Amino acid sequence: MRLRLRPTLLGILGLAGFSIPSAFAETAPVVAVNREIGLSITGSFQDALSSTTTSLSGTESIGRGRTRAYEDVWSSENRRIGWTPGFRADSSVMFNAFGISNLYASAQFGLQDGQRNNKYRFVSRSTGNSPYTFRFGGNDDAKATSTRGEIGKGFLLFSQSLLLTPFAQGGYLSTGYDSFDDLGNFFVGAGIKADYALTSRLVLRGRFGWAAVLSDDKGYTYSQSSSTHSLWQGGLGADYRMTRHLHLTAGGDYSYTHIGHADASNTYYSNTFGSVGIFGTESFSRLRSHSTSLSNDLTLHAGLAYQF
Fold this sequence. Notes:
Autotransporte_beta_dom_sf, Lipocalin, signal
């Protein structure tokens, strides 16, 4: 009975497209580092600048058929800078299936919670009046999360000492002051990873990626007529095998985010009906708004990983 069951079981696995020995065959060091579950402590530095400029311009009646042009401009600028502690959890797998070798999938979650220095400046200018400026600043709570998933395929080169893995990625970024999710954006993109085995124990790692940042899921970016959303990523790291299953990991990751909205505008026209004014006197006004957000982020990490 056992002799019959064994061929039958192997036949079922063969129909599924892979077998246990082929899915995890003898592992090259550059492949082994992509079969890990890890946990790291992190320190994240952020230098973020956001600004918004709103203007209201047009003409207004000053009586006896005369009009004059006017313009009111409000601009605000907020800069956030400093380090925050956190942690990061990683998991990745590389396997053979359906006749394709080195298929790759990974997931990553990171969290930051601390304080950063926040500087705010507001300037108001209007026709015929002196500019008004208001500033304040201090340390504020800084919270953020990052969730990312990747799928791709690895290509072994140079006698299995180099592994190049193109991948597609998607994820969610959130940031806030009192909450981890005051503002949040989804992103989708692609990139490439490179793993090079310097020795049988030490693997050097590199990563480059780009993603399109999708519209804010909180609804704060409606009515903009044109916008740019981009996320650039780069990272360097090392993975050192201490035992058969336990690895020491360390490295740094840099990201640059740019979100800009331009020419959100509306036109208003009002006049008077007899002695009752809808908006006061006859006027023609145009409201414009432009906002942009830039963020430079550097995350250093060190931790342990278990190779399965």
